[in-house]
Amino acid sequence: FSDVLALPIFKQEDSSLPQENETKHPPFQYVMCAATSPAVKLYDETLTYLNQGQSYEIRMLDNRKAGDIPEINGKLVKSIIRVVFHDRRLQYTEHQQLEGWKWNRPGDRLLDLDIPMSVGVIDIKTNPSQLNAVEFLWDPTKCTSAFIQVHCISTEFTPRKHGGEKGVPFRIQVDTFKQTENGEYTDHLHSASCQIKVFKPKGADRKQKTDREKMEKRTAHEKEKYQPSYDTTVLTECSPWPDTPTTFVNNSPTPAPAFTSAQHNTYSVPDSNSSSPNHQGDGTSQGSGDLHPSATIQETQQWLLKNRFSTYTRLFSNFSGADLLKLTREDLVQICGPADGIRLYNALKSRSVRPRLTIYVCQEPLRSIQLERQDAGNGDSSNGAIYVYHAIYLEEMAASEVTRKLALAFNIPLHQINQVYRQGPTGIHILVSDQMVQNFQDESCFLFTTIKAENGEGFHIILK
């Protein structure tokens, strides 16, 4: 994070900036609806206490004068909200600090957006490899409020011996960008931030009350040295965070993108979809394959993405296939946490779930071919291997799964299959239902044939 340290956090720290570049009237203003502490010296930066997991409103306000930045009139802008360390000392080790937090809190995020409460935010995105940031688009001409939730508390980054009041301060920073000619939101417009401390639920209220009581005991002369407490916190202008929107999307140091546009998930809810066991699409997209020891770093990154381990692409950014396969189950549990560690170990060892039902299916040869062979061989078909069966493995035990996997096994367009029937007594056709599938005997064998549908569009499959 040497880049972070090279940049001024506050504009007043950078005396080298030319006067004409300093904007006295910022284009935007961000106001967080949380009271500032009354125990802050007069010329110090404000400090705001937040409760862990509580939703706090940040109002996104258009502060432009007439004629300012006319190119964004009628257009959306993009803002990235981050929770970052305030202390320069911790900025050096931010990556290690956040990785340690992630191992202790698997599956959690440092920062979330409370989407149901937020107003005017569009195209909300979160990156699984950046747990401390959220981004969204918004219209400056409309009422916009982003409700944030901070899940890390200040004492999680201090030695155990310290009490709650000794927790480290964080910063809430908002960076806003406009769209460039190529359609990317990378042209920086404005940045602002404020200092916060995060306590366990209701801890912020108790701390605010304690500070207020301390101030009431001070003399009038002493009170003059402290700022009054304000009901809201106005974020002050600062330099943009070194990460650009491009690196927010792709922060892997390897040639393989950790979060390419193809995998960049757009969420209408927090990113629970990425951990869903059913988040694999249809049967055609599940062929992620085994990871081979000869896999390159780029191929290993792609394998992690295909198998829903995008959260760990940055962590394993320099691992080849051989490196990853050498890790033991205990190593992976320690690195990724119990849930994802076991899942990654099973994926590396190709431990697939045993299917609930297996059936064998063969497409019946055309009658003309059968007659030809019977004539040639006097009914003996031993010279030709006609009946070749395919194994169909069922997990859902549903008729729709049978149809889908038949289409996949025999290269039949799924949309052309109207119905699947089973031939019953006296040649009747019985519709294959979920209940019928659930009563199939394991390792049953079927021949199937196709007949054209009555309306001439598509066909039916008959299992015999």
Automatic annotation (TrEMBL):
One of its GO terms (molecular function) is RNA polymerase II cis-regulatory region sequence-specific DNA binding. It holds the Pfam family GRHL1_C. CDD domains: SAM_LBP1. Residues 202-226 have a biased composition (Basic and acidic residues). SUPFAM superfamilies: SAM/Pointed domain. It is found in: Nucleus. Residues 244-253, 260-288 have a biased composition (Polar residues). Residues 24-261 form the Grh/CP2 DB domain. Keywords: DNA-binding, Nucleus, Phosphoprotein, Transcription, Transcription regulation. Its main location: nucleus. One of its GO terms (cellular component) is nucleus. Residues 200-293 are annotated as: Disordered. It comes from the Eukaryota. Belongs to the grh/CP2 family. CP2 subfamily. This is Upstream-binding protein 1. It comes from Nipponia nippon. The lineage of its organism: Eukaryota, Metazoa, Chordata, Craniata, Vertebrata.
